[in-house]
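Interim report, section 4.2 (structural modelling).
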Amino acid sequence: MDGLVLLYLSPELILIAASLLIFGLDLVWRGRGSQTLGIVALVALFLSLIVTPLIAFRADPTELLSIKWGNQIALFCKICGPTVADLSYWEPALVADAIYVSDNLTNFFRIIASITGIVVLFASFDFMRGRKFVGEFYALFLLAIAAMMMMAGSTNLLMIFLTLEFLSIVSYILTGYLRENKKSNEAAIKYFLFGAIASAIMLYGMSMFYGATGSLNLAQIGAVITADTNYEVLALFAAALMLAGIGFKIALVPFHMWAPDAYEGAPTPVTAFLSVGPKVAGFAILLRLTLQVIYVYQFDWVALYSVVAVITMTLGNVIALTQSNVKRLLAYSSIAQAGYMLIGVASISGSGQPLDGVNAVLIYIAAYLFTNLGAFLVVIAIENKTGAVDISQYGGMIKRAPALAILMTYFMLSLAGIPPTAGFLGKFFVFGSAINSGLAWLAVIGVINSVISLFYYMRVIRPMFFDPTPEGAQPISYSRWLQTGLVVTAVMTLLIMLFPTPLFNLVSYGTQIFGIAMR
Amino acid sequence: MLSAITFIPLLGAIIILFLPSDNAIKRFAIIWSIIPLILATIAWVIFPTWPDFTLMGSYCPPDIWVASANTYLGECAPWIPVLGIQYHLGVDGISMPLVWLTTLLTTLGLFYSARVINERVKEFFALFLILEMGMLGVFVSLDLFLFYIFWEIGLVPMYFLIGIWGHDTDRPQYAAIKFFLYTLAGSVFMLLAIIALYLFSTPHTFDITLLTANRDNMPWAKDALISTLAFLGFFLAFAIKMPLFPFHTWLPDAHTAAPTAGSVILAGILLKLGGYGFIRILLPMFPGTFQSLALWIGVLAVISIVYGAFVAMSQNDFKRLVAYSSVNHMGFVILGFAAAAALTNEQVTSPELSNYFNNGAAAINGAVLAMFSHGVITGGLFFLVGMLYERTHTRELAQFGGFMAKVPIYGALLLLTAFASLGLPGLAGFVGEFLVLQGSYTTLTALTFVAVIGIVLTAAYFLWKVIQKVLLGQADEKWAKLPDLKGYEILTLVPLAVLMVLIGIYPSWILDTINQATIVVLKAVGAT
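Predicted structure of the assembly:
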């Protein structure tokens, strides 16, 4: 019976097993068959994506063995169907002292993580062709995705620290993957040093929580500090320290300094992953910390998050204005995007309305995932053929690769929040939730920032359409894998805007657990 | 019907992407753009009498269906049920003429561009049709969420139209991004206002008809702070779009840099989106706030009139002059709305409401008609400027002169359009502005006097700068072989010229349509 519980971890276990398999195969094949290794990784990611909904809607592990897959799939279809799903009877049971849970939020992030992995893999095949250490790359990449999922499921301080370090260390290695490239090495070292400091600060905050409450479990810590308001100062201080570690993963100002260098130096598929993966997983932990531990001291954390959100958005957007390297520009853009997401966290009100911050964050994450990965796919497609990563080298792209230029325009508009794009829907929910919880001033700063951001997003587009084609420039071709990835991201960016109800169902399924936590 | 009118251009844009040759694209785009024009014409003829599409109506929640009783050709479908967002379209006497004008100017613009645009043809015609969809969508949407989406959709194609096909000497890229940023800066505040209306309404709704009909029971209307802030959010977006002084600085750059057809659409339709917002949203939804601010908005409107006229007078660039004349003319439109907003209750509910010379009705009827005729006239003026530029490759007024004798057909059409624009009785420009002044006389008397001075200034710069500098005097020798208008150019201008005369001498055909909707708006205003 107890062994059956492991079935709940099957998405993570599939990925870890596949990762070990790739290590092994690589050892046997000695660097040959790089495409096959990638396909193994892709299959593993698809499997974990399919398994997640199957384990998602069950309260008891024994049910997993009973042959009712039909019901399971019907349930999943209902949630991802075009009509508003009634979620009232899927309240999960909370385990009192769990260190790791497979609840609705974890499942939501499992889906997000698998999709991230799949899309980034589509981008990696071209990039990895003819390189060394291919097996290590794919194996570590799968571990990174598994680490993302595990971060989302951690409900214990120790587990949070371990999974966060797990993701960090894998990310450092992936960032420094190009061994002969100085920039890649520099990026990895910088990333590592900043990460070490951030972890230390976070650990300090955790130790304060533990010292005060005698527990490592989020729910128990929450119960103790909720019961006695004398804990207010301590809780705020410890949470702020923990925010250092989480903010490092999310790239919140002032813990963002690693991001531009790491984004620029890392292999571009890894950059694409870094811009989504750690950020998303960081928000999962931030949501649990906010809603399960310090929720009662709402005034404090709203103030803390609002201030950080304003600084993050504004700084990210203003510095992005001056960038000429596309990867650096997207790095600052992703810092600013994290600021918008943090508005969503700051405007959680527990009202249970559709326009609540907790829904807004997850919708924004889903929209950002497809949009940002799509933008990176375009960058990768151009870089693979021409090596160009500077905006000035994008001249005349509409002639050389019309599809890439049009798609890039679409993704940039989505990042700026111009309809009809997923990014608009995300911003709509985030600003709506801010007004809904009385933070209209935050929404005003947010929209002013969107206007600023439009300027640099259009700077990427401008040479593509307005500048002449450089002498001797060839049309740009790209592989089937990249094409698939581009089609998936572009179609999803459009569909999320046109038919948001399935996403909304999934999001309200994911946030349902907080209905209990928020009381 | 309305969905077809709105989305047929989009379909056309998609088909264009797959057409092989430039000629095929041009021919296809022109013919395709006639379809919405025909549909819009049919819609205008049938719309007030045609029974509702009950099939469509059955998808509408009953409260919305009741509230939209005064809109026609309604269409409804649930879109985002968790937020209560409906795909809700409908027209009334105010939006119908503007829809028709949009389809007309698009067809004329494409027809003219087919001869002029020879670079990157596929992109031009596809973007133009997407632009048309965005504008039509704004006029037919009755849901604020949908309204906002269409509002923003129009920005992107216009950005590219200005940036790619603009004249190199006019810094088109600068003008394009300035246009984009200015308009977006306004519209994001509108977005916040839209969200605020949704959150502070019971039940939560984005529906324009519902928000108007149940206004007095809505929490946002009872809370002075929220309704003032929401009003300002909408006002900023519309004032930038109109553009109202001091938010007008994007306009001369964008108009001057844009290609001819782009300027025509920009002046003819895009500016009207702002005016349409005033009449569809600000006036019926926020009558109280609008009334308390009417004087100040009226002052800004009069400044626009006088300032626009003076700046236009000082221009040496023909196209810039026409651009500033838009600031001048749009001032009258806003003055009309401000005058209607300033009406007191007993003035609104006076018995002769059905008479469109009645004060409040006159102001609104005049403002809407002024929007329509400004679209026709200024559209024509931009075509004329473009045609002259094609021949002379300059727009400097100092180089022109004596063209009345050189190119008589061009001269005659320019004379007619300029007279219509300066408000000569018997032509289109006069009727709208006269009604506005008549309506504003009772409520904003002092401002009306200043505005009348503006009319004199308008006449002055048109007579002096346009008619005298271009048409009269002695022609320079270098223009000895200046060719007169060709067939396709005349064909582009004739529909507009006919409309100018028709509205001028017999305005009832359009005023009757507008007045039906004006009465509804006035009743909504008076319901406070």
